[in-house]
Amino acid sequence: MKKTAAAVAVILVAVLAVFVFYDGVLNKTSDADFFSMNTYVSAKVTGYESDLCTAEIQKIVENLDTEILSRTAENSLVSQINKNGGGELDLQTAAYFSLLLDVCRQSAGAFDFTLGAVSDLWSFGSSPKIPDENELLEALSHSGYEKIVLSGNSIELQDKSAVLDFGASGKGISLDSIKACLETRDIKNAVVSVGGSSLLFGDKDFTVGIRNPEGNAGSYIAKLHIGEGCVSTSGSYEQSFEENGKTYHHILDPETGYPVDNGLVGVTIVSESGLLSDVLSTACFVLGVEKGSALAAEYGCTAIFVTEDKKIHVEGNSDIIEITDSSYTLAE
Ligand code: AMP
Ligand code: MG
Q: Distance between CA atoms of 185 and 103, rounded to whole angstroms?
């Protein structure tokens, strides 16, 4: 009798060990942190193929940056288009460009990815400064999305001095490529952040913080409770400098070439698409609460606008937001 009980116990322990082993293999988590696209990228992937995925994620972001979207990497597609005034695109990139042009039109030019020469004069990525007024006007005269002609897989810049800039969309494009890759892998869930844009992947309830505009990167004013999707934030606090008591930031009004000054400090967009979340956060920031809400609604996205006077406006699904800092209130 004693022998039987001992044998049963041994078998149970063995079964449990096998179960724990397989659970550890199937649910193992793998992390990656690196710098690319001028920003910090972090990935946390859970599932059987998590190691493989984190390596792939790094490759996807780095390749998109250096081979396609960067306008500083000499041989990237975008650098070549900027240099030659046009070029040929692969199918996927042509589809991204087409959606970007659609947002330019729908936002009446508040979003404009031909502002590269204007952005360069502000030098936010390196040593920011207020540009010379005449240089700014000259650069602005060469911008304008209407000068882009996209025909099938060919793109032409009708003004050869226009400079394409993917600063407001590259992070979202990365997330869409990463999502397409994760869908082919044995993965339970993943959270990938490329700067202020995040992909939440898998059948899980996720919580995402909205950063405190006045605090450091780890301090939040609200939580968003969402399922699978993408979340992007554009904030005036992300890249800025002060001169003579005035703050200048990197989100530019395409009409003037100067930083947008409309009482907003941040806009967060929730969307199924990484590209749309990234692009609309910038576009809605430029447009302000009223017109930005209309644009977000047009694309079926939820938009959260945070103002300088600590009001939070929500367009779309307001059930997802939980304000955690009592100095902020939900606007009616
Ligand atoms: P994001 O952080 O996604 O809002 O992108 C901001 C970046 O987009 C800036 O650093 C510029 O490179 C670029 N940008 C600034 N203003 C605009 C604009 N009005 N439309 C499109 N891109 C812009
Ligand atoms: Mg953006």
A: 31
